[in-house]
Amino acid sequence: MHFPNMAEPAGRTLGDEEVAALDRVIRSGMLNSVWGTAARALEREVGALYGSRHAIACASGTAALHLSVVAAAPDPGDEIITTPITDFGTVAPILAQNAVPVFADVDPSDGNLDPDAVAALIGPRTRAIMAVHLFGAPARIGELRDLADAHGLALIEDCAQAWLTELPGGGYAGTAGHVGTLSLQQWKHITCGDGGLTITDDDELARRMRLFADKGWDRAAGRSHESLGLNYRMTELQAAVAGAQLEKLPGVVASRRRTAVELIEALRGLGEGEGTAIRLPRPDGSQVAIELPRPDGHAWWLFPLVLPGGDAPELAAHLGAAGIPARAGYLREPLNQAPLWDRPIYGTSRYPLEGYRPAPCPEAERLVGSTLLIIDWNEHYTSEHVKVIADAVANYPGKA
Fold first, then answer.
1. Is CB count within 10 Å lower at the N or C end of the chain?
2. Could you give the CA distance from residue 348 to residue 355 in angstroms, rounded to a whole number?
3. In what order do the strands lie in the sheet with 287-291?
4. Which residue(s) pair with 304 in the sheet?
5. pLDDT in tens, 232-290
6. C-alpha span between 349 and 278 (Å, rounded)
């Protein structure tokens, strides 16, 4: 059975609406968002969707994260606490601003930041906390906001994988922190190939981010550069596609939620246990423990399973052999173990990381090494796809 994926038309929602939006922009003759209208319209629509005073469009999700670090305004050598289970795009902007990433360990049940681990790392140079809503599951953002407020820190929410993720008590992921970031890269819920946005209710943070995204150029003041900035502008072509995609976003997330809940119920029916913890019986009388994801608020960029006994690599191989797009670990290694930390950062210099060594993160290392399994997820999955996955899990023989 074929599983649609986001690298092919059958796994995307791109169609006539995006073609028509591109046609309008191309025929307008204006492809640059400084003078065009599509990017500003996208900002208004995303701001309205999220209930945010400001939305700033930019060239990529990584660019959006860089803008969020600029908004936090770390001095060289200041620290930003973040997670080791994320794309490097979360960490690269910290280094680009000459700040130091400090990796906190994660909740072993979902891979999101553990607030207690974050609290233990806050020190005199800490400037911000950067949380990632991993795979679309809501992080414990209320606790992290309380920490940020108690210590005078900025809270940044990386929502690249978390479009329309719902937070306990209401609101979307990205609206509980000082700045939220969104991604429109090829593999995300909606796409324009590459693109990003930041959202915030803070006028001053929005001003800093808009300036940095446009070379520090205050357009109202003429050809005058107020501060350091890069060209992170989104093009009108990107914005046109993103605007058409945005209209389809609620349906995309609803479809992913429907089939994800179907799979949770199917897997729960295979074994014994309560809540999210199940035990699958094996023919030899043994059992395989599986921790199911919690569906509350989840946007299902990927479908994760945690196997506390370390069976994730074997089960991933078993599912892969059945044609199911599954893999163990998500990353080759958590970012606190990346080769980068032994290498130069700028030229031959290791600044700002002289003498720096990331601390161990045992829970993150265990997830990536042996307990985390992820299944690619897609809005075009059907109940039949769910049945194929559940049947394959039911037939898992366990470790040889």
1. C
2. 15
3. 277-281, 287-291, 302-306, 372-376, 326-328
4. 374
5. 999 999 999 999 999 999 999 999 999 999 999 999 999 888 888 999 887 777 899 99
6. 50
Three-state SS across 92-135?
A: HHHHHCCCEEEECCECCCCCCECHHHHHHHCCCCEEEEEEECHH
Q: Is the peptide bond before 124 cis (omega within 30 degrees of 0)?
A: no
**Tokens at 391, concatenated:** 């049947």
Residues contacting 149, CB < 8 A, separation 6+: none
Residue-level pLDDT at 44: 98
- The stretch 177-199 carries a mean pLDDT of 98
pTM, two decimal places: 0.96
Q: Are 73 and 121 in contact (CB under 8 A)?
A: no
Which amino acids are annotated catalytic? 188
> How deeply is 105 buried, as exposed, middle or buried, from its count of CB atoms within 10 A (0-12, 13-18, 19+)?
buried
Residue 213 near residue 56 (C-beta atoms within 8 A): yes
Condensed to tens digits (0 to 9), the pLDDT of residues 340-351 reads: 999 999 999 999
**Which pair of tokens denotes residue 167?**
């937070």
98-120 residue pLDDT tens: 999 999 999 999 999 999 999 99
